Request: fold
Amino acid sequence: MSQIKRVPNILTSVRIVCSLCLLLTEPLSFWFYALFLLGGVSDILDGYIARKTKSSSPFGAAFDSVADVVFIGVLLILFIPVFPWPFWLLCWIGIITVLRLLSLAAGFVKYRALAFLHTRLNKLTGLLLFVFPFLHSLWGLNITALVLCTAATVSALEELAINITSEELRRDRKSIFQK
Reply:
């Protein structure tokens, strides 16, 4: 049973490796989608297995968040040069990044830890980011990015508010309305 408790962190490691390997692929190519989907499946499974095996830990939660940041960073590196981003959208992405960094700084000052939270809005934003490569072909760049950036902004503001107002760090807090 102790071996199975390592599986979530192994899956999180797989997501980091897949993310870094994405840098070696052509965006939106077969290999891009293969690594992208493998990374996405590992993201879903790591938390599920950790909860089912009761092997969740503060390290695992922080490691999962670091893997998410690596994944998002790689996607930005790949997607910014590929798509014809309007200036207003690049500015919006910059504002979201600043909000996330402010939240991390507030959490680090307050808790002396990386204060990534697994709120419902953060999970929704992650899901929207995951489906972005698929939705952009259906809705176009502007509408897909508008939906994603709206969710990302609200989730970043919520996380910042939680980190500023909470007495203790609870990475699994579901929303600002939950104590």
About this structure: The chain has a mean pLDDT of 92. The helical segments are 7-22, 30-52, 58-82, 87-111, 120-139, 141-165. DSSP finds six helices and no strands in the chain.
